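During the reporting period the student researcher (J.K.) took over the structure-prediction task from the postdoctoral fellow and processed the backlog of single-chain submissions. One of the processed entries is reproduced below for the supervisory committee.
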Amino acid sequence: MKGYSGDRLLSAVFGGVLLGTGLGLIFLHGATTGGTDVIATLLRLKYPHLSMGRLIFIVDLTIVLLSYFAYKSVDAILYALVTVFISTQAVDLVGSGFSHSKTVLIVTEHGKEMAQEILFTLGRGVTSVKAQGAYTGNEKQIIFCAVRAEEVAYFSKLIGQVDKNSFMIVTDADDIYGNGFNKEKL
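J.K. obtained the following structure tokens:
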């Protein structure tokens, strides 16, 4: 039986996508393959802030780099690193459920107006916390809100209309549970 003799980079890329997708599906159901992902699962107990993909990357990267001493092939190492990188990105993508939500923090002097606009225009719930500007000493509010990734541009425009001097931070939020988002784990 003759092996594949095509483009090795193409094989590394698609192999990584397929491997990562399969692993991500396995991890979604709380299982492991019995391979290096067991080590990553154990590491996750100690480092719960790291994603499963990142932990697998660390373990597999170590193994791939050590394999140089057995195979002495820089090309093989580089192709393996491409596969490992892509597969671990796919693991995290599948693990996050393909729905990247965002967390938005807004610092504003117009907290009440901002909260009303978000509540009634976007239909999103907000949490407001009183704050004080350290430099100016002015009373401010911090508005906290979870939104879907596709809502961020509209959200940003709305915030600017209410308070052009507001300060907004948008971060990724992989797991959001509750009204308007995933209710499965509540």
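The committee noted the following: The CA atoms of residues 17 and 150 lie 24 Å apart.
J.K. will present the remaining backlog at the next meeting.
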